[in-house]
Amino acid sequence: MRSRSPIALAACITSLALASCAAGLASSAVAASRPSLAPVGLPIGKIVSQRLPYTEAGGTAELSVTYKGSLPHGAKLQLLVKKTSVSPYKPSKTPVKLVGGHAKVHVTEKPPGGPILYEVAVISGNKQLSVSKPATIYWAQPPGGIFVTDGSEFAYTSLKVAHENCESGCKGDASAGEDGTFSVYSGSFPMPPGWKETLIYNGEVECTTESIEGKCSKPLAFPAVTAETVVPIVGELTSPTGKVTKATLLVTVYP
After folding, report:
1. Sheet order of strands, 60-66 included
2. d(Cα 184, Cα 166) in Å, to the nearest integer?
3. N or C: which end of the chain has fewer CB within 10 A?
4. What residues contact 141, with CB distance under 8 A and at least 6 apart?
5. Are 180 and 216 in contact (CB under 8 A)?
6. Is-above-0.70 flag for pTM?
7. Distance between CA 172 and CA 149 in Å, rounded?
8. Are 233 and 148 spatial neighbours (Cβ–Cβ below 8 Å)?
9. What does the alpha-carbon distance between residue 68 and residue 209 come to, in Å, rounded to a whole number?
10. What is the pLDDT of residues 37-67, one digit of tens each?
């Protein structure tokens, strides 16, 4: 086989170096830094052993997107949504528009909600160049109604079923001086932000809560009476818009 001249070998080496350099430039041209994604302004609560941002299903939440550097030529950011533990991430139609390396994305989820995962990916054509770490929002169902009970006597008013209504009063009974712990709760967990529950005994507020647990309790004692006396125990559920739903337990106290 004929040996190559030194000039031909140098040309070959130069060509290989140029090819390698071109490949490196092409590779760097499609490289993309990893975006970051985080919910904004949501409370965080313990839900099934995890601390998660949460909000009400049917409402709107904001996600903050950060991207350092410039997007590769022809690339864009795309929001991905994973609605169940077994479903894949699917592209959202919600646009992600960077301004100075930042973007705000507003998302919503209808009831029944639950934990929804979000990612932001850098997309070029049909190729995913990089993707953020996932961010989770727990979309909590609005309360279905309001209970007031001591475990044996109870009243309930539903927000959804018209005939399940103790707003004007459902009957209970007790003996004079009898005591017990009464609770007011919505019956659903977690309770979305902005909702409030109040326990009222004989016209006096005993406890109130806006906590994620959606429950407040208070030990109460019925008065010593010499004649049958009706004592009202009321559970109030106040929505974020200020609408109040009541469940009233009218306890007849016997001497």
Report:
1. 36-40, 60-66, 102-108
2. 13
3. N
4. 56, 57, 111, 112, 113, 188, 192
5. no
6. yes
7. 10
8. yes
9. 42
10. 999 999 999 998 899 999 999 999 999 999 9
Distance CA 35, CA 47 (A): 27
User: In this structure, are residues 36 and 65 in contact, taking their beta carbons and an 8 Å threshold?
Assistant: yes
Q: Please give the Cα distance from 249 to 39 (Å, whole number).
A: 41
Q: What is the gyration radius of the CA atoms in the chain, in angstroms? A: 31
Helix, coil or strand: residue 59? coil
Here the tokens at position 213 are: 């647990």
* pLDDT tens digits for range 22-32: 344 344 345 68
Residue 9, Ramachandran bin (φ over 0: left; ψ between -120 and 50: alpha; else beta) = alpha
Tokens at 231, concatenated: 């004592």
If 0-12 CB within 10 Å is exposed, 13-18 middle and 19+ buried, where does residue 128 land?
middle
Distance CA 30, CA 53 (A): 34
